[in-house]
Amino acid sequence: MLRRRTSIKLIDLFGIRIGVDVSWFVILFLLIFVLPSTFRQELHSSDGVAYLTTVVTVLLLYASLIFHELGHALVARRQGIEVRQIELFLFGGLTQMSRDAASPAEEFKIAAAGPLATLCFVLVCLGVDLAIVGPHRLWDAARLVSVKSTPVLLALSWLLFWNVLLLVFNLLPAFPLDGGRIVRAAVWRATGEKGRGTRIAAKMGEGFAVLLAGLGIWLMLSYGAFGGLWLIAISFLLGQSARGALMQLALTERIEGVRVADVMDRHPVAIPAHTPVSRALEEFFLRYGWSWFPVVDELGRLVGIVRQERLQTAHDRGEGWLTTGAMVDAEDARTWRVGEDRPITEVLSSESLARLGALLAVDAEGILRGVITVDQLRRALQAAFGSPVG
User: Fold this and answer.
1) Which of 48, 254, 323, 379 is the most core-located residue (most Cβ within 10 A)?
2) Residues 160 and 267 both lie in one domain
3) Are 184 and 107 in contact (CB under 8 A)?
4) Is residue 16 domain-resident?
């Protein structure tokens, strides 16, 4: 429930990791396999030209998806939300944010930023089309009617069609689509209740998923169209996401008011920063058998974490005299900490918790007060629902 599957990194943009799920390669290679024959007919060209045009066009399509997600990510950053990763998968993209929107205005700005970015991409494509064929033939060029097709025009026409389709689809008022998030922001603003906005948008998402599945089944039974299967798959994912939002809402309502301090272990084992590496290995890692420990200064303030393999490497190099504080993980220490007064709902979606297996609870002065683990969270959720949580 708390862990995410690791994606394959493509590139870093604006300090944001762009990754792809394995499923992304499925549709990538499927498009590259299917489209060349269609492109060859449109271009009246050789296989090589059609294939190259296909590859460039498909990659530009995925670039437009990244551009869409960057719209969400950069606006979220302006709202003070940390964004570390964008992940592309079989049916689109996902921007992973450190927290949810804290106000209807934040929710609206972040949700609307993606479609706005896609609209800008569409306008750029139209602008290039306009520069090539002129205003009087723009509509024909977009439809490849009465215009001699070239690789550039074909790519633009294909990209225009799919981005306009994605823009319209994303603006549908069904959670978790951007339009559904805009609906949630509107209801939240009107009622002052985020939960009500989430519930209404998610119910609309469930209803839309049913309609989409029905359309897909009709297309398959009536025409044997492969697109019908595609719509069914999309409807399944949308319905699953909408139901997940409703479950998350129910969970949040059950554990509302529960803070990190209420479930954390108040007696964390920490290594003083002045402890020599050799002593830390013997008295902490060998004794407890853990792979990492928090490190604190003389006032008990959290410095960061230190891993066994790093200390062992230093010890094997004959540097056992180094202090543990000098070997603290270089990654930002804020990644591993959480305020003891924060609600545990903020901890549930923490990437650091998924990777480290625990978060370190600190007070307002940064003094280490406890540790909260995945098992402790699971027990808290089990107590809230009265049944095991997987």
Assistant:
1) 323
2) no
3) yes
4) yes
- β-partners of residue 361 are 338, 370
Is there a single domain that holds both residue 164 and residue 276?
Answer: no
Q: What is the pLDDT of residue 380?
A: 73
Q: In whole angstroms, what is the distance from residue 109 CA to residue 112 CA?
A: 5
- Higher confidence at residue 385 or residue 87? 87
Q: 3-class DSSP state for residue 332? A: coil
pLDDT in tens, 76-91: 999 988 887 898 876 6
Compute the distance between CA of residue 156 and CA of residue 161 in angstroms, rounded to an integer. 9
In the prediction, which pLDDT does 209 show? 92
**What DSSP element (H or E) covers 306?**
strand 302-307
Distance CA(187)–CA(199), nearest Å, equals 10
Residue 1, token pair as written in the block: 């429930």
Longest dimension (CA), the chain: 80
247 occurs within a structural domain: no
Query: 86 and 73 in contact (C-beta within 8 Å)?
Result: yes
Q: Does any domain span residue 161?
A: yes
CB 101 within 8 A of CB 186: no
C-alpha distance from residue 83 to each of 75, 175, 241, 383 (Å): 10, 21, 20, 32
The total number of structural domains in the chain stands at 2
Interatomic CA distance for residues 293 and 307, integer angstroms? 7
Quick: pLDDT tens for 9-24.
888 888 888 988 887 7
Judge if 146 and 12 occupy the same domain.
yes
Candidate from 22-26, 182-186, 238-242 with smallest mean pLDDT: 22-26
Kindly report, residue by residue over 339-349, the tens digit of the pLDDT. Answer: 888 888 777 76
Residues 6+ apart with CB under 8 A from 134: none
Domain that holds residue 100: 8-171
